[in-house]
Amino acid sequence: ARPCPQDHVNRQFVAECPNALWVSDFTYVSTWQGFVYVAFIVDVFARFIVGWK
């Protein structure tokens, strides 16, 4: 088994300025043609989605 990746932020999702810490998440969405996956990049300071695909 592969070792788990290191937790570089020690589960402290707090940033003191914009663009200092980005986190990612993904989900799936139902569409008329089936399910699609959507990935998001979020700026922790602003709690704003800075990118998605």
TrEMBL record:
List the Gene Ontology MF annotations in alphabetical order.
Answer: nucleic acid binding
UniProt keyword terms in alphabetical order: Membrane, Transmembrane, Transmembrane helix
Name of the protein this chain belongs to:
ISPsy21, transposase orfB
Identify the InterPro entries for this entry.
Integrase_cat-core, RNaseH-like_sf, RNaseH_sf, Transposase_IS3/IS150/IS904
User: In which organism is this protein found?
Assistant: Pseudomonas amygdali pv. mori str. 301020
Task: List residues traversing the bilayer.
Answer: 32-50
Q: Which GO terms describe its biological process?
A: DNA integration
Print the organism lineage. Answer: Bacteria, Pseudomonadati, Pseudomonadota, Gammaproteobacteria, Pseudomonadales
Q: Show the Pfam families listed in the entry.
A: rve (PF00665)
- Chain ranges of the Integrase catalytic domain: 14-53
